[in-house]
Structures are given as structure tokens and as C-alpha cells.
Design a protein that fits this description.
This protein is α+β, with helices and mostly antiparallel strands. The protein has eleven helices and 23 strands. Keywords: DNA-binding, Restriction system.
Length: 465
């Protein structure tokens, strides 16, 4: 389909989209949605939000927060096609239409669409970069990174409103494009999984059996490690590293200290930290020495994907750790990069999941982490193994990076596609689906971002204030 604009446009009065097609309106959200506040429906399924795909049914088989089951009477009902958004994460795109009748966290606002509003169209609009910037302007709070978008502010926000048939057409078009994009992303993720499996096997062999085929072996005493070279040691983490768990999140100034940037589990990505969304918390002067991350330190996720680990480097900004992150500083007998390779193997083989505490959220506590055994070759051999791993894994790493880059590019293309359709830069009234334009919910699920995931774990409790 050739993309062409509408024949005529008019001024919208909005700085973030100056021109809209003739026939489109700009209305406050209060004209499009009503506020739904209904509790006491404990038999409905739990819903959660994905930053990329919107509201979805929570996977109860892999439930992390068991206490949710004990507080369902406090959760809000969302009727199918209602829009639910996380008050503190709406600025990130934590919003979407309910796929079925269900329950959402008290940290959510639920709005019911009036007849002239297609909730899927508005969910696309609300997740555009331009609209999320407006959300920031309308959000309120004592501390910037804990701002909330309450209903009273949401209803005052202006939105673009095409005639209802055009809303429906735009949604149909974007769903088809999403299905094609999702299939592309799934193919790239499958490739990444295969390459990662190859890399995992290489590293696993190197850190448990070494790279010298002529050495003799001895039992390690650990079932999932097996035999190790006879001149290697096997030591628990507490003997080869200092381990510190971060502090509880504090957003109020208490005692002598300062607001400083802190890392949480979402910042800890495999092998390399992600510092794009770092917030600040209050840290007292007496805590700074212990909680500051230094060059060479390893960061290990205490919650979420437990055991996920990365290494901190000099060029990264000054940061501290919140209590979902362990700081691991190795002793002279252990190179941090060699230990990181072992953490990568153990995490991807599910060894950390086997030992976590699961009273509520899955926790890899400090008490559990420091007892995990690791292989300890002589330091020069560790260095040689790390060099070997770097050489052998370089082609795999490059292929994995290319696949990730292609996913990033297709996501950027999707964002532009949505923005053009939602703001009327292209006229889709004549579009019709083709024979290959099938759409299924299974296809669309691949749009979800594994790293962003659900926002529930960090924010559920905030709705109870």
C-alpha cells in the first residue's frame, strides 16, 4: 500500500501534533472515558501490564507474588476493553485494554470507554513517545521518579479523536503490521537463543573442565559441576568474594546524606549493565562506602531473573545499589570476569532458581548466594581461560549483537508506523488486509519485551498507600 496523507488538515492546537486531518477532533479524556472503581471480585483472573504489549492475563503457573492471591479483594475490576494503566509507569507506556474481565493492582487506574472510543486505538496513542511526554507533564508527586498520573489529571489530558470507523480501521491496520513485525522478532529471538546455547556450552566446559585436555580430573563434590581438573579448588562464594546487598529504597531525606543514583534488578542485564533508566534515592554518608559500585564489581540480581549478573566498568556513572541487587567484589584468588562466566552458566542452567526463597517474590538472598560453590583455578589459568572464551565467543557475540540490533531497528520502524497512523499522517481509510495478513494473539505476544517485562513486582505495593 502506498502511504499518502489526507487531502486536508487543520490546526489541532496541540504543540505535540500541530496538524490533524479535517474531521478529527481533539477532546479531553473525560469526554471519552469514565472512571471505574470496583473492588470485591476475588474470583476474576489477575491481569498485569507489559510495557510494549499492554494489559495481559498474568501467568499463574510462574507466579512470583504469592500474596496477590491473599489480597484479591483489594484489586480493581477491569471489564473487557476497559483501559487500565499503572499510575507510576504510564509515562513508560504501562497502559492497555483489558483482554478479558479481570483484576488489576491498586496501583492502577481503570477507565471505561464511551461508545465513540475504541480502546485499542487509544492504547496505541497513549504508548507513543509524544503522548508519554505529555503524561509526564500531567503527573504529580513529591519525588519526580515516583510521580503518579491520577484519574483527575488523566481526564484533563487532550487526545486525538478520529471518527469511530477510522479508529477501527487504524487498529485493524496496526494489528496486521504488528503481526508481521512480531513474527520477525520471534525469528530473531529464536536465533539468539540458539547462539546463546552454543555460547553457554563453550563457557560451561571452559569454567568447569578448563582448556587443557591433558589434565587429570577429580570429583568436584557438586552434582551439577561434575569433575574438575585435580589442581583446581572449589570454594563457596563467601571465601572468594565480598558480597553486599543493597538498601531498601528511600525517597525521603533521613539523616546526613544525599540523593544519589541507584541500580535495581532491571538495570542488571546479562554481562552488561543497563543504565538508561537510573533513578535516585536517599543514601546516608555512612552507607555510601558500602553501597557504591566500583570498577570490576559484579552485580547480581536478587529478584526478578535471580542470579542475572554483569560487571561494572570505569566509564559508567557513579551508582549505588538498592536491595534487589548484590554487589560482589572478588578477592585476589578470583578474577571478576572468570566469576562472571560462572554466574552466566549457573544462571542460564537454572541453578539459582533451584535455591531461591519463594515465600513471596523469588529472592536470591545473600545467605543463599554466599553458599554457592564456584571453581577456582590458579589465577593465571583463569586469565588464559577468559582469553580463550573471548576468542571463541566473539563470532557468536557478534551474531547475537546483530540480531539484537535488527530487533531494535524493527521496533523503531514500528514506533514510526504507529505514530504516523495514530496522528493521521497517513490516510488508511482505503486499506484492506491481504491474503497474508493473518493476525493471532500468539503472534502478537512476541512483541513483548522480555527485559521490560511486567511492572508488577516493583509497583504493586505502591497502590496501597
Amino acid at each position: 500500500m502506498t502511504k499518502v496523507g489526507y487531502s486536508s488538515y487543520r490546526a489541532s492546537g496541540l504543540p505535540w501534533v500541530p496538524q490533524v486531518p479535517e474531521g478529527w477532533q481533539v477532546l479531553r479524556n473525560a469526554r471519552l472515558f469514565g472512571h471505574r472503581v470496583e473492588t470485591g471480585f476475588p474470583n476474576l483472573p489477575i491481569l498485569e501490564v507489559s510495557l510494549r504489549t499492554g494489559v495481559r492475563v498474568r501467568d499463574m503457573e510462574n507466579l512470583k507474588r504469592k500474596q496477590v492471591m491473599n489480597h484479591k479483594e483489594k484489586y480493581k475490576r477491569a471489564v473487557k476493553r476497559d483501559i487500565a494503566y499503572n499510575m507510576m509507569r504510564m509515562w513508560q507506556g504501562a497502559v492497555g485494554p483489558a483482554p478479558i474481565d479481570g483484576l488489576v493492582s491498586p496501583a492502577y487506574v481503570v477507565v471505561k470507554p464511551y461508545a465513540e472510543a475504541n480502546s485499542a486505538y487509544f492504547s496505541y496513542l497513549f504508548r507513543t513517545a509524544m503522548y508519554k511526554r505529555e503524561v509526564n507533564k500531567f503527573s504529580r508527586g513529591i519525588v519526580a521518579d515516583r510521580n503518579r498520573l491520577y484519574w483527575e489529571s488523566f481526564k484533563q489530558m487532550p487526545s486525538l479523536v478520529p471518527p469511530r470507523p477510522e479508529q477501527d480501521q487504524i487498529v485493524a491496520y496496526l494489528r496486521v503490521q504488528d503481526a508481521h513485525i512480531a513474527r520477525f522478532i520471534k525469528a530473531k529471538r529464536d536465533l539468539i537463543a540458539l547462539l546463546t546455547e552454543q555460547k553457554l556450552r563453550l563457557i560451561d566446559h571452559a569454567v568447569t573442565r578448563g582448556i587443557n585436555a591433558s589434565v587429570k580430573f577429580k570429583p568436584s563434590g557438586i552434582e551439577w559441576v561434575g569433575e574438575v581438573p585435580e589442581h583446581w579448588e572449589v570454594q563457596r562464594l563467601k571465601n572468594i568474594a565480598h558480597v553486599v546487598l543493597g538498601k531498601m529504597l528511600t525517597t525521603e531525606a533521613k539523616g546526613e546524606g544525599e540523593f544519589r543514583p541507584y541500580l535495581r534488578s532491571t538495570n542488571v542485564q546479562w554481562l552488561k549493565p543497563d543504565v538508561r533508566d537510573v533513578k535516585e534515592m536517599w543514601i546516608t554518608r555512612s552507607e555510601m562506602q558500602q553501597l557504591r559500585v566500583r570498577k570490576g564489581d559484579l552485580l547480581v540480581s536478587e529478584g526478578g531473573e535471580v542470579g542475572r549478573a554483569c560487571q561494572w566498568h570505569d566509564e559508567l556513572p557513579e551508582c549505588y545499589i538498592q536491595n534487589s541487587v548484590h554487589r560482589v567484589a572478588t578477592k585476589p584468588v578470583m578474577r571478576p570476569d572468570f566469576l562472571l562466566h560462572q554466574l552466566f552458566v549457573y544462571g542460564n542452567c537454572g541453578q539459582f532458581n533451584a535455591i531461591v526463597n519463594r515465600v513471596s517474590i523469588a529472592h536470591l538472598t545473600r545467605e543463599k548466594l554466599v553458599t554457592v560453590p564456584f571453581t577456582v583455578p590458579p589465577i593465571k589459568e583463569q586469565q588464559a581461560i577468559c582469553r580463550w572464551i573471548a576468542d571463541e565467543c566473539q563470532p557468536l557475540d557478534e551474531a547475537i549483537a546483530r540480531a539484537h540490533d535488527e530487533i531494535t531497528l524493527i521496533r523503531e520502524y514500528r514506533d514510526r508506523l504507529i505514530a504516523d497512523a495514530i496522528t493521521g499522517q497517513v490516510d488508511l481509510r482505503g486499506w484492506r488486509p491481504g491474503p497474508d495478513d493473518d493476525v493471532s494473539d500468539d503472534d502478537l505476544a512476541a512483541l513483548g519485551d522480555d527485559e521490560a517485562g511486567s511492572t508488577e513486582d516493583e509497583d504493586d505495593t505502591d497502590g496501597n498507600e
